[in-house]
Amino acid sequence: MEALLEELPAMFEAKFQDRLQPLLDQQQRLLSGNADLRQQVLLLQGSDQVVGRRPRLLPLPGRRRLQPAPSPGDDAEPPTGASAVPTRR
């Protein structure tokens, strides 16, 4: 019985490694795919790339661009209700 208890940590470690390995493999495939996609983005940006400048990334799908705020003299209606910007109290 004592021998079995002494082997128990090694058995759990082996089982853990068996379950962990597919996750590590998947992580490596995702990292590799990410690097490939980043390389494609850089190639598609071509001559726009300037050394020392942050790369221009494509916008995320579903994300809207913010509209510029109207100038004070534009006769624009002030926001009301749910569209108003909440103030901090």
What is the N-to-C order of secondary-structure elements (H for helix, E for strand)? Answer: H
The geometry reads as elongated
Task: Estimate the mean pLDDT confidence.
Answer: 77
Main sheet properties: none
What's the number of extended β-strand segments?
Answer: 0
Would you tell me the structural class of the helices and strands? mainly alpha
Instruction: Estimate percent helicity.
Output: 40-55%
Cα-to-Cα separation, first versus last residue: 66 Å
Number of separate helices? 1
Strand content: under 5%
Any idea what the radius of gyration is?
27 Å
Can you tell me the residue ranges where pLDDT is under 50 for at least 5 consecutive residues?
none
Question: What is the element layout, followed by pairings?
Answer:
Layout: H1 2-45
What does this entry look like structurally?
- With about 90 residues, this protein is an all-alpha fold.
- Helices cover about 50% and strands about 0% of the residues.
- It has one helix at about 1-45.
- The N and C termini lie far apart (about 65 Å).
- The model has no long low-confidence stretch (mean pLDDT about 75).
